[in-house]
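We close this part of the discussion by returning to an individual protein. In the encoding step, the backbone of a single protein was reduced to a row of integers, each denoting a local shape. The sequence in question and its structure tokens are set out directly beneath this paragraph.
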Amino acid sequence: MKKRRVILRIFPFNRITFPVLLRSWETRRIDSAFEVVISQQRPRPRPDDVILYSFMTPFLPLIAAEIQAINRPDIIIAAGGPHATGDQELTRRIGFDIIFIGEGEQNFIDFGRDLREGNIAKEFRIYQPPSRSVMSRYLPLSRYLKTIPPLELTRGCPRRCRFCATSRIPAAQRDYPSVIRYMDALRGKGVERINFITSGNLSRQAVVSVIEAARARAFAFIEFGIFPSEIRPERIEEKLLTYLRKRVSNRSLTIGAQSGASSRLKSLGRDHEPREVIRSVGLINQAGFRANVDFIIGTPGETPAEFNRTLDFIRCLKKKFRVTVQVHFFFPLPGTPLGFARPRFLDPSQRTILQQAGSDGLITGGWQKNEQQSAAYLEWLGRRHPDYHHRFG
């Protein structure tokens, strides 16, 4: 009997998502019931196909266009990821039949079982996350994909930054035996590099335990505190930095400053001051690291004075420390307190200032592309979903 096709639509922006989901199926042998297809191009569906997507809000117009092109009555299309979690209404509206909310592994198992048993029809359904995290049960390694994502040490965040979607997922920590299983699996594959993701709420002792376990397994490259993770300024401490400098391969650490204006930090719910950024960058340099410092401009309500204060603060950092400053532009993420807040788009003089700062080597980052994405998203909403667009202040 021919197996039903389950197509995973892979983009550069979601390639680290699917290994752990597939692993949850492999662990329960659910995958054996289907023909699992990895597609890096727009699928050409056959009758009875199931197509799975995972995406963030900036890519919604792209995803919506693809769904419109492939959707038909004899296939099922499912969505997970940050946008589906934060905005089930618009996800359904653009054509998805199935939505996974929040933590994905158990949702994906439940969905796979329903699909295998014939309990899935082309009708709208939402899969809710479990009451307790199951992240420790599954590793982000799949026989279907060569991608080896960083290991999530923590998931979710106890902080409540008003622009960030991470806190929508309850904070959880991977247990130590699961970390060891991951390391042993990588070494069994001959992998020499290991990296980690954490929202920054790990204790120093937990970090030390993980790094020492990696060293005991002779990884040639051990990375911590760099993309796709960062460290909050107030979590920086001298003892941890001294330890990391002797143990990890990366020679830079990434922290989120977000603004150089105290009033803007308070408005964003950051719970730290610019002086804590200065303190942390100084400690990072003293320990022998370069600091990668992230800022966000264009947040709702940002005043010209706050914008200028942030640029002055960046100049101060560049003058005093060894830093790389990465500037990003605000994007409204559904499900966050600022999910329906309109960005403060740059005026021509501000744009000229930032462009000159880039030419002078003061800043890097994707602020121009980010601003274009925010503008394109709002334009798309206004054109395709005007009632939704009207919710923005």
Summary: Residues 150-389 form a domain with the TIM Barrel fold (CATH 3.20.20.70).
